[in-house]
Amino acid sequence: MSAAAVSLGSSKPSLRLAGIGIGAAILLTLPLWSPSNYVTSVATLAIFFAVASTGLNVVYGYAGLLSFAQVGFWGLGAYVSALLVTDLGFSPWTAVICAGLVCVAAAIIGGLAALRVSRDAFVVVTLSFSLLLQLLARSWTSLTRGAMGIPGLAPPQVRFSGFVLLDGNSAGDFYWIALGSGALVIAATYWLLRSRIGRAFIAVNLDEHLARSQGISVFMHQLSAFALSALIGGLAGGLYVFKLGIVDPGIFDIYYTQMMLIIVIVGGAGHFWCVLLMSIVFTALPEFLRLAPELRMILFGIVLIITIQFMPQGLGGLIAERRSRMLRRTE
After folding, report:
1. How many CB atoms lie within 10 A of CB 319?
2. What does DSSP assign to residue 117?
3. Residue 191: how many CB atoms within 10 A of its CB?
4. If pLDDT is split at 50, 70 and 90, which confidence band does 295 have?
5. Percent of the chain's residues with pLDDT above 70
6. Cα dihedral across residues 307, 272, 173, 28: positive or negative
7. Of 250, 251, 277, nearest in space to 264 by CA
8. How far is the C-alpha of 70 from the C-alpha of 230, rounded, in Å?
């Protein structure tokens, strides 16, 4: 290896740390220099999409199971959280945690049956699950209030020794609440995916028969990935509903499904940080271009076609391929 290559390699960690520090500073201080509450609200939405897309990336990018149930868990978490607060008097934070646990239970119960079919059939089952939840939200009016929804959801607060540190009624404070909560979920997910469990997910994705021969339980790891994605989606939806202030059947809209899928596909399934980056891009771009919902879908379709044509493995796959080429040249 050449001296230049060694110098380049030694400079990469410092550049990476500098980039992480600058990015963290921008995220932490955004409400302080944001030109308007609108920009802060868009950034908050990007955080929620980043968390929800991370859940989809776990089950699809790492475990290899294309799931349309993520929007179902997102909506289920929103409804559970809203109902616990309005009907049972739970605090928002307790309701969010319970929403995630309910989604895990739903994923385990549904996954025990859905994972016994082929991967193609699994896609259909998960799509049916989301559509069924949307139908229940519209039709079970005694519980969900139907199309009228559940309004008047007060945002959460962060208190310490009786003092309110962050009040969710403020756009900036809710951004920090979402950022802190999202960072915890994303950091925990990243740690888990870097552990033996995450490596087992990848092994199952690459070759089920080989993974089984090494003593890895394919079914249990697929079920675990599905449950983990449900937990993440339920937590994201359970907190997001307090940003909206109301929950109705629109929470299951196909727009959310398309957003999560395009974020993971363009970012690169199985590439953790690139998926997070695309969450910011695809949340901010349509908003700043002031596109109508119909035009957003056209834009997403064009981007998806270009990605499949020129980056079939997504941005993360393209970066990994170029990095491997550079390493081969320097050897």
Report:
1. 16
2. S
3. 11
4. confident
5. 93
6. negative
7. 277
8. 7
pLDDT in tens, 17-57: 777 788 888 889 999 998 889 999 999 999 999 999 999 99
Residue appearing with tokens 């859940």: 55
Q: Which amino acid is at 72?
A: G
Parallel, antiparallel, or unpaired for β 163-167 and 157-160? antiparallel
- Provide the mean pLDDT of the chain: 88
Rounded CA-CA distance 265/316 in Å is: 10
Instruction: Report the alpha-carbon distance of residue 122 to residue 113 in Å, rounded.
Output: 9
Q: Is 163 helix (H, G, I), strand (E, B) or coil?
A: strand
Q: Which two tokens stand for residue 117?
A: 């079919």
**Amino acid, res. 35:** P
Which residue(s) pair with 157 in the sheet? 167
- This prediction has a pTM of 0.91
User: Residue 140: what pLDDT?
Assistant: 92
Say whether pLDDT at 9 is over 80.
no
Question: How many residues does this entry show for the chain?
Answer: 331
* Identity of the amino acid at 279: S
